[in-house]
Specification:
The complex is a heterodimer of chains A (265) and B (365). Chain A has one domain: MetI-like (MetI-like fold). Chain A is mostly helical and 265 residues long. In chain A, helix 5 packs across helix 7, helix 7 runs antiparallel to helix 10 and helix 10 runs antiparallel to helix 13. Chain A is built from 13 helices and no strands. Chain B has 365 residues and is of the alpha+beta class. Chain B has 2 domains: 226 residues, P-loop containing nucleotide triphosphate hydrolases (Rossmann fold, 3-Layer(aba) Sandwich); 120 residues, OB fold (Dihydrolipoamide Acetyltransferase, E2P) (Beta Barrel). Chain B is 24% helix and 33% strand. In chain B, helix 2 crosses helix 3, helix 2 runs parallel beside helix 4 and helix 3 crosses helix 4. Chain B starts with 10 loop residues before the first strand and ends with a strand. Chains A and B meet through helix 8 and helix 9 of A and strand 6 and helix 2 of B.
Chain lengths: 265, 365
């Protein structure tokens, strides 16, 4: 529809939008050129270019071990949180039991609770349960943090899905699990993939809880980054940040492109 | 009634009840459906007809009662073990599958081989007159086509019973009427025991062998369409099926009396009810000039004042206030020959009700 407001009259809106986008993106992207710096300390703009900080990252056990811990934890979290969160979203969507509101609020609580509080609580529980500095402990803690994201994403997915299709499938001879797997799941698959990616990224980026419950050989990348920052500041941190940025942004972009292509065809 | 297919089963529903708290959605309902019969559950919304259907399909668990398919009790079986085909109100076709995959879905679950699957999909598509549609996407189909595919998917595995929940309510009026006849024809070919739910009385009368009318969770009457129309059990049914006016009548030693006029009734036994009402179908009353027809053993003549005349195309609806004060509706066909007897508003008229058309119903259901 044709608007009566000219582009000139809306100039302020464009400028404001551009400024907001700039503030969102610049701090993120500033580490990228810094990681390719030839200088010995973090500096912007870099005086010259080199790949030495990436080399540094891939040659040190400290970084590689931490990267593997983070990846392992993120994969584990993705699988557990997506499964549990999807099951919870499904039962809350389909079920008509009395405690639905309470259960939803409990599962979503880690979103509202300060991370530091959660981390302290987990630390004491883990200390007595022997889960400190273990991958399993990390996966459980990260699952806790990631479930709200899965829950919200999958609840939205189920809302736009016509549940009577599952009833039809059951009347046609499918048991509940088969009906869910063959009829419901294929239709919420984009929500499911988004939820899984979110769970992965939430775990991979998680700092506060990891600082408390991971340690030693089972320290996450984020924890090692923090420790390193405290001791000496060299551009390896920028290189690690850039790598994390790639891992966190490339899969969602690829997914988005695939989804768009599918919609167009 | 049509000949039943060899696989068709009778359905026995006895003392079936479903409560939601204090609300009795279905209250002690018992009746039977013969093998190969087409029965429609009819009633206003909230009358329990859909809840009953959901209990037959296995999606709702009754608080009491029994449902038998043939000699097998199914009340404890989950939906997927009942072998019942079901067409849902919104069709619920699977949008991520093609038409052919939708129809083949129940066959795959039954491990029917690929070649036979394709053959049966082809045959059922022929049956619903959508040959060659197997490769189409669901989104490419019109409403009527979706309805047929939903039906095809529900019958392709030759279920013992076919259930339909408001199968035509999503279609426009014209398509609905075509599909009513088509579904009935399909039923006659397949001879499958079929139970349909609707709130549309015309749909029920058109398609069914028998109609079960529900009111507030209870079965009000189950009868053939013509019996339901001609001999309704009570005022609720007479009101729900077709149009009617009702006038209160009194019991006297001579017989039933309206005002001071002795009524000539179709069936003397009709006088047994507690609060008798004379049921007047608008199309069974004819309008004449005052004094033109005399009251005798064969007919009743009521005098009154025409209040309004409404033109409705194929007929006219005339509102008449009878002399004792009750207002009744009269339908006059829109033929030139009838025009001579057409009153204007405010004119006095006589209404003639032939004795076989004079039926008494009870006020209470």
């Amino acid at each position: 529809m044709e608007s009566h407001v000219t582009h000139k009259q809306r100039l302020w809106l464009y400028i404001l939008t551009a400024l907001i986008l700039l503030f969102l993106v610049v701090p993120t992207l500033i580490v990228v050129p810094m990681s390719f710096s030839s200088a010995n300390s973090l500096a912007f703009p870099p005086p010259g270019w080199s790949l030495r900080w990436y080399q540094n990252f891939f040659e040190q056990d400290k970084w590689l071990t931490a990267a593997l811990v983070s990846l392992r934890t993120a994969f584990g979290t993705m699988i557990v949180a997506t499964t549990v969160g999807t099951a919870a979203a499904y039962s809350l969507h389909v079920g008509k039991f009395a405690l639905r509101g309470t259960i939803y609020a409990t599962l979503a609580a880690p979103l509202a609770i300060p991370a530091i509080l959660l981390a302290i609580g987990l630390f004491f529980v883990y200390a007595s349960a022997g889960l400190l500095n273990t991958t399993a402990g990390l996966i459980i803690a990260h699952t806790l943090v990631a479930i709200p994201f899965v829950l919200i994403t999958m609840t939205a997915g189920f809302k736009s899905y016509d549940m009577s299709q599952e009833m039809v499938a059951r009347s046609l001879g499918a048991n509940r699990l088969t009906a869910f797997l063959t009829v419901t799941l294929p239709q919420v698959k984009f929500s499911l993939i988004s939820a899984a990616l979110l769970a992965f990224i939430v775990s991979f980026d998680e700092v506060v809880v990891s600082v408390f419950v991971s340690g030693g050989d089972v320290s996450t990348l984020t924890k090692v980054m923090f420790q390193t920052l405290r001791d000496d500041i060299d551009p390896t941190i920028a290189a690690v940040s850039t790598l994390m940025l790639v891992i966190a942004t490339v899969p969602p972009l690829v997914l988005q492109l695939a989804a768009n292509r599918k919609r167009e065809s | 009634m049509t000949s039943a297919a060899p696989t068709a089963l009778p359905v026995y529903i006895s003392a079936l009840s479903k409560y939601y708290g204090a609300f009795r959605a279905v209250d002690d309902v018992s009746f039977e459906i013969a093998a190969g019969e087409f029965l429609t559950l009819l009633g206003p919304s909230g009358s329990g007809k859909t809840t009953l259907l959901m209990m037959l399909a296995g999606f709702a668990r009754p608080n009491a009662g029994s449902v038998r398919l043939g000699d097998r009790e199914v009340i404890h079986l989950p939906p997927h073990k009942r072998d019942i085909g079901m067409v849902f109100q919104n069709y619920a076709l699977f949008p991520h599958m093609s038409v052919g995959e939708n129809i083949a879905y129940p066959l795959k679950l039954r491990s029917v081989g690929r070649a036979e699957r394709e053959e049966r999909v082809r045959r059922v598509l022929d049956l619903v007159q959508l040959s060659g549609y197997a490769e189409r996407r669901i989104t490419e189909l019109s409403g009527g086509q979706r309805q047929r595919i939903a039906l095809a998917r529900a019958i392709v595995f030759e279920p013992r019973i076919l259930l339909m929940d408001e199968p035509l309510s999503a279609l426009d009026k014209q398509l609905r009427e075509t599909m009513q006849i088509e579904i009935r024809r399909l039923h006659d070919r397949l001879g499958m025991t079929t139970i349909s739910v609707t709130h549309d009385q015309r749909e029920a009368l058109t398609m069914s062998d028998r109609v079960a009318v529900f009111s507030r969770g209870r079965l009000a009457q189950v009868a053939t369409p013509s019996d339901l129309y001609e001999k309704p059990a009570n005022r609720f049914i007479a009101d729900f099926i077709g149009e009617s006016s009702f006038i209160p009548v009194r019991r006297t030693p001579e017989g039933l009396v309206y005002g001071d006029q002795l009524l000539r009734l179709a069936d003397a036994g009709d006088g047994a009810q507690a609060d008798p009402l004379l049921m007047l179908r608008p199309e069974r009353l004819s309008i004449v000039r005052p004094g033109q027809v005399a009251c005798d053993e064969k007919r009743n003549v009521f005098s009154g004042l025409a209040q309004s005349v409404v033109f409705q195309g194929e007929s006219l609806l005339i509102e008449v206030r009878l002399d004792p004060g009750d207002v009744v509706l009269v339908r006059q066909s829109n033929r030139a020959g009838e025009a001579a007897n057409r009153p204007g508003a405010g004119e006095r008229v006589d209404l003639v009700l032939d004795r076989p058309d004079a039926r008494i119903v009870s006020a209470e259901g």
